[in-house]
Design brief:
- This protein is an alpha+beta fold.
- The chain has one domain.
- Helices cover about 35% and strands about 25% of the residues.
- It has 6 helices and 9 strands.
- Strands 1, 2, 3, 4, 5, 6, 7, 8 and 9 form a 9-stranded antiparallel sheet that branches.
- Strand 1 and strand 2 form a beta hairpin.
- Helix 5 packs across helix 6.
- The longest helix has about 30 residues.
- The protein is elongated.
Length: about 250
Amino acid sequence: MNRSLSTIALLLLASDVLLYAQPQPATPHTPDLLGIYPGMTDRAARIQLQKQSSSIAVQASASDSGLSLTINERNADQIQVYMTQAPNDPPTVWRIARTQSSGGAAGTPLSQTVVLTALREKYGKETLNSDRGPGGLYLYWIFDASGKLLASADAVLQDCDGGNFITYMSSGPPRQLTDTQKACYSSFFAVRAFFNRRDSQFLNAYTVELVNLPYAYKAAMNTVNATNVAAQKARQDEVDRANKNKPVF
């Protein structure tokens, strides 16, 4: 009887692994950041990212399945692309971030007006903004699931940050979500820009991220569920071996 139950448990675990390995849903190709968009495959994203430089190679990170490119001749222009992890196959993009600094007195200055104009030309008028004085200026372009820019959105989404989700891709999100996390993980598909201002005219640096947190949340749950299934299977295998290891007295 115990042997039969063990067999059934292993079959159920195997079916769970197949369930969690299902591919992520399709995402719209717009909005994009430098031609890279959430849902893009890792191979396509690498090719697109490499187009930003003919002399510097794209680097890969095994720890977070990410890609990065740092172009020093563009005022320390750094681009990072973050991927989903197994069992999501193939790995796909869930976040793209670009940070550029002015390079100090010797670098090319960054105009707040010019950078903001470029963002509005690309994405339209921002959905939300938050001027935090010395804390910098934050702007948000928030999209629905189809990629359509929203004219308005819940102000709580201003507390969403794709960078805070990076560690959750492998370990899984918190079991108990705050109200803000629930809002972010259910609807924050956005371009988020942060301006580190030198004064009213110039920027020390800016960061722009494009992130689809609902997509990332589903992928992270796939990963953590598959990890749990694997751990349960390993535990069941250990129990079966222990049951067969009957000493003779």
